[in-house]
Design brief:
21 strands; eight-stranded mixed beta sheet; 2 helices; disordered N terminus
Length: 311
């Protein structure tokens, strides 16, 4: 809480849950006795344009960050030109979309990118590389040093894109509620701490191939979806970390795997789920579809379609 008290924040129309408009300019400064943090100037505007909720932002957070570059992350934070839209009224898709790039955007204009570019590679300096075995993908929270994540569960990608891999508790202060962002298909993203439970569990036993050894959470493939009921006799979240909140379907960021949803159930805006960091700095290329957020779900597999959804 000390770092929040020391933050210097100037905000106009900080947050309206209706999503009509957010206009925010913020700077965060730390005292000398705190851990190193970066002075940032956050700018984000959220507007409703016909059937879209649109974000224009500079990609800088409205809170202190860790020190970048650092030992686990060689990249420095850079301002971005973020200009993305999500459907105002989400529509369920025929297929689940597996996420390889950005799955959503926080209310402060910082993106959620749950995956990494690392795969098991015994020849790699860290035991993984982008050229490794695609059957064994690194989960950032299981990686040695967590690839330089800071205390906001965020780090920096190529191109200077600061992005979240888990919950940044400051988002709750920014919104004044559990709403922390919007997914690429338009559904809300919430954080409720221990009030909801992921449906994913760590597998028992040993890996049959690749790196071998016991399932320990280093790889996404170390986990399996089991669903079921939690200790409070409430349904655990679905495979995309979604569930009901006040009678509406929403996604959740959780404190356990998968942390941030790895798939989306709705029709995804063409502004999201691009695997290349630079492609998701918010710089729009030519559009081939209409502006209602609809797009094809792509190929099955990486960044493509998952299972067909039920009724």
């Amino acid at each position: 809480m000390t770092q929040l008290k020391n933050a210097l924040i100037s905000t106009s129309a900080l947050f309206l849950c209706s999503g009509v408009l957010i206009g925010c300019t913020a700077s965060a400064k730390s005292s000398e006795d705190e851990a190193p943090k970066r002075l940032t100037e956050n700018r984000v505007e959220i507007t409703i344009k016909e059937s879209q909720r649109c974000f224009v932002a500079n990609g800088l957070p409205d809170h202190p960050t860790g020190d970048f570059p650092n030992r686990g992350n060689p990249n420095a934070i850079e301002r971005q030109d973020v200009n993305v839209c999500v459907p105002l009224e989400p529509v369920r898709a025929e297929f689940i979309t597996q996420i390889r790039g950005t799955m959503g955007i926080a209310i402060n204009g910082v993106q959620f990118r749950p995956n990494t570019a690392g795969y098991y590679d015994p020849e790699g300096r860290r035991g993984h590389s982008p050229r490794g075995d695609k059957n064994w993908s690194i989960d950032i929270f299981g990686a040695r040093g967590k690839l330089g994540l800071d205390f906001n569960n965020a780090h920096v990608g190529r191109g200077g894109l600061y992005h979240y891999h888990g919950i940044a508790k400051h988002l709750l202060d920014t919104s004044g509620s559990s709403l922390i962002g919007y997914a690429g298909d338009g559904y809300e993203i919430h954080y409720l701490n221990e009030d909801v439970q992921s449906g994913w569990d760590l597998k028992a036993g040993e890996r049959p191939s690749g790196p071998g050894g016991r399932y320990d959470g280093t790889y996404n493939e170390d986990f399996t979806y089991v669903g079921g009921i939690d200790a409070n006799e409430k349904p655990r979240l679905d495979p995309c970390n979604g569930g009901e909140l006040s009678g509406r379907y929403v996604y959740f960021v959780t404190d356990s795997y998968p942390y941030v949803p790895r798939c989306l159930v709705g029709v995804v805006s063409e502004d999201f789920n691009k695997a290349n960091h630079n492609a998701e700095r918010g710089e729009r290329g030519p559009r081939t579809g209409n502006r209602d957020g609809r797009r094809g779900e792509g190929r099955r597999g990486e960044g493509g379609r998952g299972p067909r959804q039920g009724n």
